[in-house]
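Continuing from the previous page of notes. For each protein in this section, the sequence appears first, followed by its structure tokens. Read the first protein now.
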Amino acid sequence: MHKDGHEFPVEISLSPLETGEGVLVTSAIRDISERKELERVLQKNIQLEVASQAMERFLNTMSHELRTPLNAILGFSGTLLMGLPGPLNEEQTKQLQAVQRSGKHLLAVVNDLLHLAKIESGDAALTLEPVVCQEVLEDVRTTLRPLAEEKGLGFRIKVPGDTVLLNTDGRALRQILINLTDNAIKF
């Protein structure tokens, strides 16, 4: 026990010491708090690594499980919209376009969640590159305007007339703007 009353781990070494009076025992008591803390930190790191690997396996599985049916939905609705099985009436076209928009939006969300998870885990890095601001804003408009209209909300984005180049990660910027705008539409 420490002078202040708190307990701490120790290591005790006992050694025989022969003297003229007989065998005595010498002892050394060493504070091993730092070693125990290091062991605790190492154990925590192992647990975090195991959790990270489990998360990666989960994300890979979910990626496959979500993308496969989404790709089928997008593929079949695209085939129908192209009129390959036969012509569609106006209402059918409108409904299939809604399926396509929603499917593309969901696929983008899945892809972006996986990308953000990779960034957080350190498996992916942001890539700085010239990005045309107007193109990003147009993507946001194309993706989310139908959702806003379904809720009866107006949706306007003022796009600068002159080309504005940003040196940023275009994918991350799109995702940030889509998330913010999507939250505004939802709430």
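Done with the first. The second protein uses the same format. Note its length before scrolling.
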Amino acid sequence: QIMTEEQAENMPYNPFDLTKVWYKGEFPLIPVGEFELNRNPDNYFQDV
């Protein structure tokens, strides 16, 4: 989701508040790619 500085100033809440969700109608989700798990990790603590 992308927001301009002007939009952030006019939001009814702090857009950096992690407990709030941005309006998906105004700020649609932008797909950026896919994440593929093609094998189990050899060393879980190192790889994950």
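What the second structure shows: The mean pLDDT is 90. Residues 1-30 form one domain. We return to this in next week's lecture.
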